[in-house]
Design a protein that fits this description.
four-stranded mixed sheet, five-stranded antiparallel sheet
Length: 430
């Protein structure tokens, strides 16, 4: 056979090898979400690509059959060409060396790398050709699929779970954020939404010691003073003891009876119903309950029926969108940076948030919520000023404490990482 014809045939076969290799990479790397969006917008090619991706086994068989036929044919023609040019003794050796290099560079590595850069666009461009090839090779694919299914049954290979866990979704969000496809606010919002179902009421509630409440027989002037000083718009009302909360009083209802001379001065007639919940209810469930009951307020009770704390609709929504401030809120900083490796942290900061702030990986699930609870548990006592301990790469020193809790700790990092200075966490305090 004429050498020129063999060279032209080899070029065509190498191009076909590149086509099959790049197509395999494009379809395996294509983003299903992008393709689905295109299909939903009426792109017919995207619909065809999605069908092929869903039938990936037949697609892969088609690609492998085509690629092997092309590569084997190219090797055979190359052997004939090099024997014609260099003789029987060295022609086979030259053919093997040259075709290995050519196939690797121009038939595998380069086309796959190019397809990886724009997988969706390449898949859309070649979907018509691949669809025709899959129809032509359907009988052969059927044989290979049957053989594959037999092997799967013999070795009892279980199909992989294709569902995503919460952690995997968060990883996807982090990757999108790091690649610049998502800004900080969007990433935080999506991460909070994914983690929303995992948050318990105890993680966000206002603890009993911080609850501002009024007794049913509190004088109106004193109630007005409490409203002005606390800045709250709703106050829980108890009878005899804070463990017996009977409702809550809205600020506008209070001022109605306070300034209206004809209105009854009995606040019990203005009380709104409260619902009760437990510390271990998920906030997603509580949110639905608050919506059903059309209220913004819930009392958290302990196992003995006593008041454990309170939680509001705003507390729940802040787990999604971050802190919500109004004109009465005072911003409290939980972290104060002393130097690159030393920080002051308030004791009522959330312990999980502190570990995230300092990039500390902790596998244990703690029974406490606050930094103060963590320090008390670690010290196995109510610590006093000056008590210290080591945890991971932190040296923790108690800077301020009373007989009930830890107010401030100092955290010294033994191996502070080079990173941008973080904005101190803030919380609205009315």
């Amino acid at each position: 056979m004429d050498s020129n014809i063999l060279i032209i045939a080899l070029v065509i076969l190498v191009c076909l090898s590149a086509f099959f290799s790049s197509t395999e990479t494009a379809f395996s790397s294509a983003n299903k979400i992008k393709l689905k969006n295109l299909a939903n917008n009426g792109n017919k090619k995207a619909e065809r690509v999605m069908k092929i991706v869903d039938n990936y086994s037949s697609f892969l068989s088609t690609i492998l059959i085509g690629n092997n036929i092309v590569n084997i044919t190219a090797s055979s023609l190359a052997t004939a060409l090099f024997i014609n040019l260099f003789g029987q003794e060295v022609g086979v050796t030259y053919s093997t060396v040259v075709m290995t290099i050519v196939i690797l560079i121009f038939g595998e590595i380069t086309p796959k790398a190019m397809a990886k850069e724009r997988p969706e666009g390449f898949a859309l461009a070649v979907v018509g050709v691949i669809s025709v090839l899959m129809v032509i090779l359907k009988p052969i694919n059927f044989i290979f699929d049957s053989f594959k299914n037999l092997i799967v049954k013999i070795f009892k290979v279980e199909k992989a779970d294709e569902t995503y866990s919460s952690e995997e979704f968060i990883t996807i969000v982090e990757e999108a954020h790091s690649e610049g496809d998502m800004d900080d606010h969007e990433a935080d919002l999506l991460t909070n939404a994914i983690e929303f179902n995992d948050v318990d009421v105890k993680d966000i509630m206002v603890p009993r010691v911080d609850v501002v409440a009024i007794a049913i027989d509190t004088p109106l002037d004193e109630i007005g003073k409490i409203y002005r000083e606390s800045g709250y718009s709703r106050l829980p009302v108890y009878k005899d003891s804070i463990d017996n909360i009977i409702g809550f009083l809205h600020e506008k209802d209070f001022y109605y009876i306070y300034y209206n001379k004809d209105a009854s001065k009995d606040i019990s007639k203005q009380l709104k119903k409260v619902i009760y919940t437990t510390p271990y209810i998920k906030i997603s469930s509580l949110l639905r309950q608050l919506q059903t009951e059309k209220t913004h307020f819930a009392i958290v009770i302990d196992e003995y029926g006593g008041t454990f704390g309170i939680v509001t609709m705003e507390d729940i929504l802040e787990e999604l969108v971050g802190e919500i401030y109004d004109e009465h809120d005072e911003v409290e900083e939980y972290y104060k940076k002393i130097d690159d490796s030393t920080y002051l942290v308030k004791g009522d900061e959330d312990i999980d948030d502190m570990f995230k702030y300092f990039d500390i990986k902790v596998d244990d699930d703690f029974e406490f919520v606050s930094v103060s609870g963590w320090v008390i548990d670690t010290c196995d006592k109510i610590p006093v000023k000056g008590d210290s301990f080591d945890f991971k790469h932190m040296h923790v020193t108690v800077m301020d404490a009373d007989e009930k809790k830890v107010n401030v700790i100092k955290v010294e990092l033994s191996d502070p990482k080079d990173k941008e200075e973080k904005k101190p966490k803030e919380k609205n305090e009315r």
